[in-house]
Design goal:
Helix content is 37%, strand content 25%. It is of the alpha/beta class. It has one domain: Glutaredoxin, CATH 3.40.30.
């Protein structure tokens, strides 16, 4: 299961992580977000201990989505050493998400 990231714990979970981090920006009313949600949870299980996979509800948190200019959801941001190194907007195939996460581990 993906970890819940909020404005209040973003620094601790994402920026201070010694592992790569994926943040899924989503909302409960967003159909495409609900489609990609199970994939995000699957990736959290697959990469447990290697990558932090998290979700940020944009309805409950506005500071972080604004800071990273998240204009559309779902948006996935891929962090390494506190920096955004990749981004996906919209629904993409599971294989593409898996490849992007795997590449975080190679860099």
């Amino acid at each position: 299961m993906a970890l819940a990231v909020k404005d209040s714990n973003f620094q601790e979970i994402v920026m201070a992580s010694d592992k790569p981090v994926v943040v899924d920006f989503w909302a409960p009313w967003c159909g495409p977000c609900l489609m990609i949600g199970p994939i995000i949870d699957e990736m959290a299980t697959k990469y447990e201990g290697k990558v932090v996979v998290s979700k940020c509800n944009v309805d409950e948190n506005s500071v972080i989505p604004m800071k990273y200019r998240v204009m559309n959801i779902p948006t996935l941001l891929f962090f390494k050493n506190g920096e955004v190194v990749d981004k996906v907007v919209g629904v993409v195939p599971k294989k593409e998400i898996d490849n992007k996460i795997a590449s975080l581990l190679e860099k």
